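Can you give me the bound-state structure? Components:
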Amino acid sequence: MSDQPTLVQHAARPPRPSGVSNALVFGWRAVLKFKHVPEQTFDLVMGPIMFTLLFTFIFGSALAGSISNYLQYLLPGILVQTVMFNSMYSGMGLSTDIGKGLFDRFRSLPIWSLAPFAGLMVGDVLRHLIAGLIILAIGLALGYRPEAGVVGVVAAFILLVAIGFGVGWVFLVLGMLIRTPATVMTLGFAVLFPVVFTSNIMVDPATMPDWLRAIVELNPVSHMASAMRGLMTGNANASEVLTALAAPAVLTVILAPLTRWLYRRE
Amino acid sequence: MDQPIIADRRPDAGNGEPPAVLARGMTKSFGALKAVDGIDLEVPVGQIFAILGPNGAGKTTLMRMLATLTTPDAGTATVMGHDLLAEPQSVRASIAMTGQFASLDEDLTGRENLILVARLWGFSRRDARARADHLMAAFELTDAANRQVKDYSGGMRRRLDIGASLIVTPGVLFLDEPTTGLDPSARQRVWRMIRRLARSGVTILLTTQYLEEADQLAARIAVINHGRKIAEGTSRELKAATGSGFLHVTLADPAQIEAASALLEQRLEAPVQHNAEDMRLSVKAATAASASDGVAALVAAGVELSDFSMGSPSLEEVFFSLTGQMEETAPEDVA
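Here's the bound-state model for the whole set.
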C-alpha cells in the first residue's frame, strides 16, 4: 500500500468550554462567511444604497417638499426596513446548513444548544451595523443631519440591533422548518412586505385614510421607526423607545425557546 | 498489515468491560411508518459492527437515535456507559458521527472546518490550528487545506468529514454509509482507514447497504429489514445459517436470462436470484447431484453458459434468503 497515511495522534477532550465560548466560535464562522461568500456582502452593500437613493430622489420632493426634508424623515425608517429585510440571511443560511446535514454535526457535539443560533445572530448584528453605517454615510453625504449628534446615533443603532435581533428569531424558526433557502426568502418577503410598507417608514400617516392610518399606527414597525427618529433627532421619550422594543422582546421570549425545541426535536 | 491510525491509545477491550453500545427495544415511527421496530444491539468495545440492510430498512434512523440526533419512541440504550436519554451530553462527549451527507460547511476551507469543530470542543485557538493541520496531513488533505470544501471531490469530503469526527478521539464512531457514492479506489481508502481506526481501539458502528463492505470490515453484522433485526452474527455464521451450497451460473447471452431462471427454479424447486448486471443466476442446491442436474437441464434447453460453479452462499445470497426479497428496490430511506 503506497499511500499509507501518517498516524493520527490521539487527542483527549479539553475542559468543557462555556456556552459563550461556543457562541463566539459560531460567530467566527459567520465572519468567515463574509470572506468566503463575497456576493453576500455585495447584496448587503448594494441593497441599502439603492433603497436610500431611490426613495429619496423619487419621493423626496413630492412628499416633503424637498429632498433634504424628506431624508430627515426617511433615513431612520429606512434603517429599520433594511435591518428587517437583512434578518432573512440567517434563516436562509440555517435552512442551507440543515439541508446539507451540517447541523447533524453540531447536534452530535456536546455544546450549548443555542450556540449555533447565537453565532448566526452575531453575523446578523455585523450585517446590520455594516448596512446601517452605509445608509448613514449616504444620508450624511446627501444632507441628512442627526440633531441628537453622535450620542443619538449610537443610541439609535443600539435600538436597531435590538430590532434585528428580535426579528431574526422569526427567520431562524422559518429556517428550521423550511428545507429550501429560496422558500425561506419568498416567505420572508411575503411576510415583511405588508408589515414594512403599512408603516410610517416612508409616509407620515396623517395624510392616509382613517382605516389605513389605524392600521399603520398599530403596526409595531411604525413604533420602531418613530423611536429611531426620536433618538436621532433628540426628542425621544422612554415610553416611545420601550414600545419600539416591545415587539423584539416578545419575539425573542417566544421564539428563542421554540428554536431550541425545534433544534432538539425529532 | 495496517498500522493503527491513532497512536497512544491502548486497545482496552478487556473482560468484564461494559459494551460500547447496548440497546434494547429501540423503536421509532414517522407517522404511520415504523422505521425502527424493537431492535436490540450489543457492540463490544473496539469492534467494527455493521448494520446491513436495504434502503428504508431503518439503519439510518437506528444510528441517529444512538447518536442522540433522533429521540426514540421506546427502548433504552447506553453508549460508552452513558444512558442515551438521561445523559445525552455525556453520550455526545464520547461519540462522533459522520452522516450520509458530509456534515461540512462548504463555504469554509477544509482547514477552517476542522478548526471550527476543534474550537467547539474547547481547544484553544493555537491547539485547534495544530490539531486541524495534523488531521489534514493524516488524511492527505494538506494540499487542499486552504480550498473551500465546495471544490472538494466526494472522497476528499468523506475523508475530511471523518477527520472532523476524530478531533477528539471518540469512544464510538458512527459511520452512516461511509462509502456510498465513492469510486472503488476512494472506497478502498476509506475501508483501510476504518480498519486502522478500529485497531487503535475505537469502536465503529457503521451502516451499509453493500454486503461486500460488511463482509470486508465488520467483526459482526446485524441484518435489518423493515425496521426489524432479522439476523446477527459473524459473516461466516450468517453464511452457515443459510446452509447448503449454491449453484452459480453465468450466461453468455443476456436474452436467455428469463428462460434460464424459470428452468432452474422449476428443476431445483428453489427461488433463483438474478444479477442482471453480470448475467449471473444463483440458486440453492442441496447436493452436487442436484446442481449438476440443473446445469444439464440448462445445456439441454440450449442455454449458453460462460461459467458455472458450486459454492457456499455469498453474503448477498444470505441477505436475500433472509429477507426473501428478490430485488433491491425498496422505499426511500426515511430520515
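A couple of observations. The first helix of chain A runs from residue 19 to 36. The two ends of chain A are 43 Å apart (CA to CA).
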